[in-house]
Design goal:
Blueprint (H helix, E strand, L loop, with lengths): L2 E5 L2 E4 L4 E8 L6 E8 L6 E6 L6 E3 L7 E6 L4 E6 L8 E9 L11 E2 L3 E6 L1
Protein backbone atom coordinates (compact mmCIF):
# COMPACT_ATOMS: atom_id res chain seq x y z
CA UNK A 1 0.00 0.00 0.00
CA UNK A 2 1.32 3.40 -1.03
CA UNK A 3 -0.06 6.83 -0.26
CA UNK A 4 1.10 9.87 -2.20
CA UNK A 5 0.91 13.55 -1.31
CA UNK A 6 1.87 16.28 -3.76
CA UNK A 7 3.03 19.70 -2.66
CA UNK A 8 4.80 22.76 -4.01
CA UNK A 9 2.13 24.08 -6.31
CA UNK A 10 1.15 27.70 -6.53
CA UNK A 11 1.18 30.77 -8.70
CA UNK A 12 4.20 31.61 -10.82
CA UNK A 13 4.85 34.02 -13.67
CA UNK A 14 5.64 32.81 -17.16
CA UNK A 15 9.31 32.01 -17.48
CA UNK A 16 9.63 31.19 -13.82
CA UNK A 17 10.42 27.94 -12.08
CA UNK A 18 8.68 25.74 -9.58
CA UNK A 19 9.52 22.43 -7.94
CA UNK A 20 6.84 19.97 -7.02
CA UNK A 21 7.29 17.24 -4.46
CA UNK A 22 5.51 13.94 -4.09
CA UNK A 23 5.95 12.33 -0.70
CA UNK A 24 5.16 8.64 -0.46
CA UNK A 25 4.40 6.44 2.49
CA UNK A 26 4.81 2.70 2.55
CA UNK A 27 7.51 0.12 2.97
CA UNK A 28 7.95 -0.69 -0.72
CA UNK A 29 8.37 2.74 -2.29
CA UNK A 30 11.53 1.68 -4.09
CA UNK A 31 9.56 -1.04 -5.89
CA UNK A 32 7.42 1.52 -7.69
CA UNK A 33 8.12 3.57 -10.75
CA UNK A 34 6.62 7.03 -10.57
CA UNK A 35 4.76 9.10 -13.10
CA UNK A 36 3.73 12.73 -13.28
CA UNK A 37 0.47 13.77 -14.89
CA UNK A 38 -1.42 17.01 -15.23
CA UNK A 39 -4.96 18.01 -16.02
CA UNK A 40 -5.96 21.46 -17.20
CA UNK A 41 -9.53 22.77 -16.90
CA UNK A 42 -11.74 21.21 -19.53
CA UNK A 43 -9.01 18.91 -20.78
CA UNK A 44 -8.08 15.28 -20.30
CA UNK A 45 -5.33 14.17 -18.00
CA UNK A 46 -2.00 14.00 -19.80
CA UNK A 47 1.30 12.39 -19.05
CA UNK A 48 4.17 14.69 -18.12
CA UNK A 49 7.03 12.37 -17.30
CA UNK A 50 8.14 9.26 -15.51
CA UNK A 51 11.03 7.92 -13.50
CA UNK A 52 12.21 4.39 -12.87
CA UNK A 53 12.43 2.68 -9.51
CA UNK A 54 16.10 3.50 -9.16
CA UNK A 55 15.78 6.99 -10.56
CA UNK A 56 18.39 6.31 -13.22
CA UNK A 57 15.90 6.30 -16.09
CA UNK A 58 13.51 9.12 -16.95
CA UNK A 59 11.22 10.05 -19.80
CA UNK A 60 9.22 13.15 -20.66
CA UNK A 61 6.41 14.30 -22.85
CA UNK A 62 7.56 16.35 -25.82
CA UNK A 63 5.66 19.36 -24.54
CA UNK A 64 7.85 19.61 -21.44
CA UNK A 65 11.10 18.00 -22.56
CA UNK A 66 14.04 20.24 -21.82
CA UNK A 67 12.08 22.28 -19.28
CA UNK A 68 10.95 19.72 -16.72
CA UNK A 69 13.11 17.30 -14.79
CA UNK A 70 11.98 14.56 -12.45
CA UNK A 71 14.13 12.93 -9.82
CA UNK A 72 13.67 10.81 -6.75
CA UNK A 73 15.22 10.22 -3.38
CA UNK A 74 14.24 6.76 -2.22
CA UNK A 75 15.79 7.34 1.19
CA UNK A 76 13.31 10.18 1.70
CA UNK A 77 10.45 8.46 -0.13
CA UNK A 78 10.08 11.54 -2.29
CA UNK A 79 9.85 12.27 -6.00
CA UNK A 80 10.45 15.73 -7.42
CA UNK A 81 9.41 17.55 -10.54
CA UNK A 82 11.55 20.57 -11.31
CA UNK A 83 9.77 22.83 -13.76
CA UNK A 84 11.64 25.62 -15.51
CA UNK A 85 10.68 28.12 -18.20
CA UNK A 86 7.04 27.76 -17.29
CA UNK A 87 4.37 28.67 -19.80
CA UNK A 88 0.72 29.57 -19.32
CA UNK A 89 -0.21 26.27 -20.94
CA UNK A 90 1.53 24.51 -18.05
CA UNK A 91 -1.33 25.62 -15.81
CA UNK A 92 -2.99 22.50 -14.47
CA UNK A 93 -3.49 20.27 -11.50
CA UNK A 94 -0.41 18.11 -11.23
CA UNK A 95 -0.56 14.55 -9.96
CA UNK A 96 2.03 11.98 -9.07
CA UNK A 97 1.28 8.31 -9.44
CA UNK A 98 2.95 5.04 -8.54
CA UNK A 99 3.16 1.84 -10.53
CA UNK A 100 4.87 -1.48 -9.95
CA UNK A 101 8.01 -1.96 -12.00
CA UNK A 102 8.24 0.40 -14.97
CA UNK A 103 6.53 3.72 -15.57
CA UNK A 104 3.90 4.31 -18.23
CA UNK A 105 2.29 7.21 -20.06
CA UNK A 106 -1.14 5.63 -19.60
CA UNK A 107 -2.99 6.84 -16.49
CA UNK A 108 -4.89 3.58 -16.10
CA UNK A 109 -1.65 1.68 -15.67
CA UNK A 110 -0.93 3.23 -12.27
CA UNK A 111 -1.87 1.71 -8.95
CA UNK A 112 -1.83 4.76 -6.68
CA UNK A 113 -2.46 8.47 -7.11
CA UNK A 114 -1.87 11.59 -5.11
CA UNK A 115 -4.56 14.20 -4.54
CA UNK A 116 -3.02 16.70 -6.95
CA UNK A 117 -1.60 20.17 -6.52
CA UNK A 118 -2.64 23.25 -8.46
CA UNK A 119 -0.07 25.09 -10.54
CA UNK A 120 -1.04 28.36 -12.18
CA UNK A 121 1.27 30.15 -14.59
CA UNK A 122 0.36 33.75 -15.23
CA UNK A 123 1.08 35.70 -18.39
Amino acid sequence: QVQLVESGGGLVEAGGSLRLSCAASGRTFSNYAMGWFRQAPGKEREWVGGISRSGRSTSYANSVKGRFTTSRDNDKNTVYLQRNSLKPEDTAVYYCAARKLSYSDYPGAYDYWGQGTQVTVSS
